[in-house]
Write a structure and sequence with these properties.
By secondary structure, the protein is mainly alpha-helical. It contains 12 helices and no strands.
Length: 311
């Protein structure tokens, strides 16, 4: 009898424990971290615009922290365009940024840290643009106008970064928002993918900028025209450029110096600028380099310290 009672007690205890196990959930272990911007938080117009701001922020090439001041990956083409073509002098001393000297002399090595920094800044911009598109796919309740604008701006920026990389490295991997395995081969010319992104931007962006520095239809048309001209396809470039001219919105300033007047740079109705990469003024030497990269509005360390004057 005692054995039977012990058996019944054991069965009851086992049943109780089993019931507890079935009734318990591990949900309490899933604690949302504090101070982290989750996709749900960003899946709104304000959140997506914040992500877009970060994507625009990569346009100055400064994406590598305080030790990378934009010299290595300057998207204004001062180094890889002006200095490399002998249209500008690097300046300063022989020992200051010696890789610039090699680039100026046409002797840049593939192992140069400048090449690594340039590559990294391009794909940092691509990643930021793709983040916008990934979060946009999760967002609910956005108007069609907001969805089209945000997607248009993100794809314009993604096209810009890939376009920039294609100019310098020729065959590079194309990375879109669906890629999870980033071991993507560079086994083809990504011209068609860049072209498709620019065309999407043309179809979905407003004709005129809604804010200074934001992408718009004319900026996408001009960029696609440049892509065609890179390939020598002037027949496809001309209608795009004609559309910009015939819009009646753009013309050259009467005074060339007005291009460098701050009030004109901030004016959304500016007639000479089709697309501007934004920078901050009055930041001082260190902060100016940290936030603007090579686009700082003053000289440093002997680099381009003499500015032309225009009457």
């Amino acid at each position: 009898m005692r054995k039977r009672n012990n058996l019944l007690k054991s069965l009851a205890a086992a049943t109780f424990v089993f019931t507890l196990l079935l009734g318990c959930s591990e949900d309490y272990l899933d604690v949302s971290p504090k101070g982290v911007l989750t996709p749900n938080v960003l899946a709104s117009v304000n959140g997506l615009d914040a992500l877009l701001l970060a994507a625009y922020g990569g346009l100055d090439g400064h994406t590598g922290g305080a030790t990378n001041l934009g010299w290595q990956n300057d998207h204004t083409n001062w180094l890889y365009g002006e200095v490399a073509s002998d249209n500008a002098l690097k300046g300063s001393t022989i020992g200051d940024q010696p890789d610039m000297n090699l680039l100026e002399q046409g002797q840049m090595s593939p192992s140069s840290p400048y090449m690594d920094a340039l590559w990294g800044s391009i794909y940092e911009g691509v990643a930021r643009s793709n983040s916008v598109l990934q979060i946009l796919s999760m967002a609910e309740g956005l108007s069609d106008a907001d969805q089209n604008r945000i997607a248009g701006e993100a794809r314009f920026l993604r096209a810009h970064y890939h376009h920039y990389g294609r100019r310098y490295f020729n065959r590079i991997p194309y990375i879109d928002e669906t890629v999870t395995d980033f071991r993507v081969p560079n086994d083809h010319d990504i011209f068609p993918e860049i072209e498709a992104d620019y065309k999407f931007a043309i179809e979905n962006l407003p004709l005129n900028p809604t804010q200074v520095g934001r992408a718009h239809r004319s900026a996408a048309q001009a960029s696609l025209a440049k892509l065609y001209m890179d390939k020598g396809d002037f027949a496809n470039a001309k209608p795009l450029l004609d559309a910009i001219i015939n819009s009646g919105r753009y013309k050259l300033f009467d005074n060339y110096n007005d291009n460098f007047v701050m009030d004109y740079e901030k004016d959304i109705t500016n007639t000479e600028f089709i697309f501007q990469i934004q920078s901050l003024s009055r930041q001082g030497e260190l902060n100016g380099r940290l936030v603007n990269g090579i686009a700082q509005l003053h000289g440093c360390c002997g680099f381009f310290t003499t500015f032309p004057k225009f009457g």
